[in-house]
Amino acid sequence: MQWAGSGRRVQLPSDWAVRRLSVLKRDGFQCRGVLRDTGVRCTAPATDVDHIVPGDNHNPANLQALCRWHYARKSSAEGAAARRRPVSRRRPVGRHPGDLG
User: Fold this and answer.
1) CB neighbour list of residue 85: distance below 8 Å, 6 or more residues apart
2) Closest CA to 65 of 26, 12, 16, 14
3) Radius of gyration of the chain from Cα atoms?
4) What is the pLDDT of residues 14-25, one digit of tens each?
5) pLDDT band for position 6 (50/70/90)?
6) For the segment 30-79, what is each residue's pLDDT rounded down to a tens digit?
7) According to the lineage, what is the superkingdom (predicted)?
8) Rounded Cα gap, residues 46 and 24, in angstroms
9) Which end of the chain is more exposed for a tag (fewer CB within 10 A), N or C?
């Protein structure tokens, strides 16, 4: 993951390295991603630990070990989904602060 310009690293708990290693060990250092064509668990070595449900829940139950390919694919899909969210065009209720009338 490219951390340059991202505020994500500061959102991680101070013991992230310990949690990360714990999840990798729990998952046998094997990717938990599922191969789409076979429905079988990926056999590639896990290199990353990712949140199952995006956000700031760093509970081990919400963390999974993924290979570089599955991690990049999941992160890319989440980024694309965030870019597709509509931006509200509604004006805020109330007077504009610059309205002198």
Assistant:
1) none
2) 26
3) 19
4) 999 999 999 999
5) low
6) 999 999 889 999 999 999 999 999 888 999 999 999 999 999 999 899 88
7) Bacteria
8) 7
9) C
Give the separation between CA 74 and CA 36, rounded to whole angstroms: 13
Question: Rounded to an integer, what distance in angstroms lies between the CA atom of residue 93 and that of residue 95?
Answer: 7
Amino acid of residue 39: G
φ, ψ of residue 27 to 5 degrees: the values are -90, 10
Q: Which long-range contacts (CB under 8 A, 24 or more apart) does 10-17 make?
A: 11/56, 12/58, 13/58, 16/58
Question: Does pLDDT of 11 surpass 90?
Answer: no
| Distances from the Cα of 37 to the Cα of 40, 42, 86, angstroms | 8, 11, 32
